[in-house]
Amino acid sequence: MGNLAARTEQYFDEATGRLTDLMQQRLSFHERDAQQAYEKWQQHFQKLNEDNVFDRIRQYLEPFKTLNGQQEALNRDVTATQRELLRKIELDSQIQAKLLSELTNLNTVLVKATSKNRFQRFMDSLFGGVKPV
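and the corresponding structure tokens:
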């Protein structure tokens, strides 16, 4: 009986030793996994801190700060261009009116220059002249 008790105790001691070893291996495995996860999270947060999304958004929106000033400058430029175009149109209309007046005078002079005088009309009535078609 004592021998059986000693062997049973020895069996439980060995089983406990193996169970302890197995638990130690599992514990070290989980500690290693936990350390790797911690390092990965650390890298992730470090990358997020380095690559700050809000700073990038702020940088992207930076050009829009001067948008109102640019629009006002553009409006001034467009207004100045429109005024200049209107001035040129007015100048062109004055030149065209002057040309029209000159053409009217030229037509009057041409009509007078091409009209027949008394002597030509007398010669036409005497000899028959050239009849228009």
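(Above: one complete record from the training split.) The mean pLDDT is 89.
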